[in-house]
């Protein structure tokens, strides 16, 4: 029965501490398998003085320089079980193997085996599970043996019992065994120190100095003090938890606080008396509940090697988180401390933390909580459903006006307050112990931001319509005037925030800070705040305090004071960015030094006296590669490197003690712009020849920068701009000059020959031109003679035609006379025979053929052109065309055609139509000029 009661009490205790403390945790950052890209199990972890973290991983040795994870594998590719960084050397233990890693002259981390020198002593299947530095020696521990390395040789020490742990205290090395108790290392021998039956079959995780006693931490039996040869259980309240969850690693901070890493339930952090402060497990952010290894660095930063993942916890930071593991809390909008109780306003309702930090829901408060404000000794809750008074067990509505965003006291008036709601401004006034609530009938606009300029003037910011200036009457019974400043200088009308900063009405817009200028009655840029706060920063805390919180678009928060130009505190944790309530970030003042930042599913408690951990370490050049081949760093003189033109240079950087940073670089001969590096390696190609300086710096997410690291480079000119090139150019120039001289002489001789030929050709050309000119003159003379002959023949032809006409006219007259004397003929037969002869003489077809032949000779191709252009012309048409071509009149043509004058005119008219001539074109002109 007693045994069962004991088990139940242990379970009850564990359950109670889980409920009480599971919500709070220090700042935690996890590194997943996807990030470090190695095995899931991380057996041991250590941090070197230079800031680099080394992890004993299933796949090998992991190195983290605060920016990039790198994996180094052992030659046999076995699991690394233990690791210890001593100065710049990393010692590791593995399966039948141990040794150290050291960077060579090229900056490459190389492994050097120590176990190879004692292969005959290594036990089969032996693994090195622990490494410690003791005086001027390095001690390696397996379950069977201890190996002492003094940097010259290795001494093996065997044990009759299984070796569990090594602990160095002052100048002593304590060796804990499973069944034989505790030993001391004395001159390369194990000397018994203490044995107790209680320690039989007990895993002593570590032995530490606790005040003037030895503190023994066991895996399943809790903790004990060893003092004056006696083993006494401690009264640490954490004992039951670590027994239940199997302690696996233990550390003590500089301030005496203790860290317990367990196999089953993550990490427990206690004060120096063993009282629990934080419990960090998978429920509140840890990737895995099995802590395989842990390490405290010089700044009390805790690094954890987990069964699946790696974690970093800032134990030296007094800021801590409240995380809701149930998911009921939702998005937090406001936090306040009232009567020593923390109240949390969320989108699901109002919660409070009791004295044991348990989360309790305030009954009746379900819905969106916007604002929590203490007025007098009462707590006001601005709610989606109205405004409520909050007490320990009550949630009393005093206003039905929905959406209480903000409430402000009226200056110089007691018990009068103005609240901004969904539907405008509401007055709260306390009379005879009761709150009287009244809505103003003007300015019925959503008012999330409200500030007072003076006792009777307030400013309200609308989400999309800019800002309004509100004037109240003397007794605050009504609003006298509402003036919209949308067109009075405000740079943007969207998402404006309004503040009263040092009696200046100030506005934060998307374009920067502005302020109201009463003399101009206008809104103007506010240079002071743009310079001091930043154009893109906005205040997320009360604006009437000396220390206020600023939120930047990049996601970090810093605290500033108008009385001190130095930033008091910077929060640049990358984990916060994913938990902000965007647009509704709020920092609430809990007391003079503690603030609360609202987050999704929780909040962060901030101690403003905590020094900012934003100092960045000067970048260190780890490896320099030219053309992909690392160079010997020891041969770099005065940080200057010389290499050939067109060779690429790759520089690997580290800034291991910096947090939340990246690297930037610039080249002196390309301007003053800094460029962001994607990771720790920066490659430069196509650099100009000559000397230049490459500058590197680490830059934090909050905008802070480190000291600059410079690297002088001298890019040798290409061969064609080097001495050999210039010598070759000189030879080529001489050859070219000689060649040009020879070619010039040849050219002169050739030109002289060409000139001679040219003159000969010109003489021949002149002779040919003279001959051609003479021939041309002869041709002209012939043409003139032919023209004269044509004119003569034309005249002859015309004369023949006229003679023919005259002949026909005479014959016609003779015929006419004969016809008039017909009766005088005795023989009609003779008369008719005579007429027939006359008719034949008048027609004379043979004469027309002769005429046509002569006409064709005079007017060459006339009939051909006419027949080609007008193929439908009849022979009669061609005749009349010929007569017209000879410039004969209709009267002269009639006898030749043996038709009347009118018949000729009629024929000319028809001919004009056949030739398709316009009315204004003469047929005579057309035929005379036809071509």
TrEMBL record:
<feature type="domain" description="HTH luxR-type">
    <location>
        <begin position="866"/>
        <end position="931"/>
    </location>
</feature>
<dbReference type="GO" id="GO:0006355">
    <property type="term" value="P:regulation of DNA-templated transcription"/>
</dbReference>
<dbReference type="InterPro" id="IPR036388">
    <property type="entry name" value="WH-like_DNA-bd_sf"/>
</dbReference>
<protein>
    <submittedName>
        <fullName>Transcriptional regulator</fullName>
    </submittedName>
</protein>
<keyword id="KW-0812">Transmembrane</keyword>
<feature type="transmembrane region" description="Helical">
    <location>
        <begin position="724"/>
        <end position="743"/>
    </location>
</feature>
<dbReference type="Pfam" id="PF00196">
    <property type="entry name" value="GerE"/>
</dbReference>
<dbReference type="InterPro" id="IPR013783">
    <property type="entry name" value="Ig-like_fold"/>
</dbReference>
<dbReference type="GO" id="GO:0003677">
    <property type="term" value="F:DNA binding"/>
</dbReference>
<dbReference type="InterPro" id="IPR015943">
    <property type="entry name" value="WD40/YVTN_repeat-like_dom_sf"/>
</dbReference>
<dbReference type="InterPro" id="IPR016032">
    <property type="entry name" value="Sig_transdc_resp-reg_C-effctor"/>
</dbReference>
<dbReference type="InterPro" id="IPR000792">
    <property type="entry name" value="Tscrpt_reg_LuxR_C"/>
</dbReference>
<keyword id="KW-0472">Membrane</keyword>
<keyword id="KW-1133">Transmembrane helix</keyword>
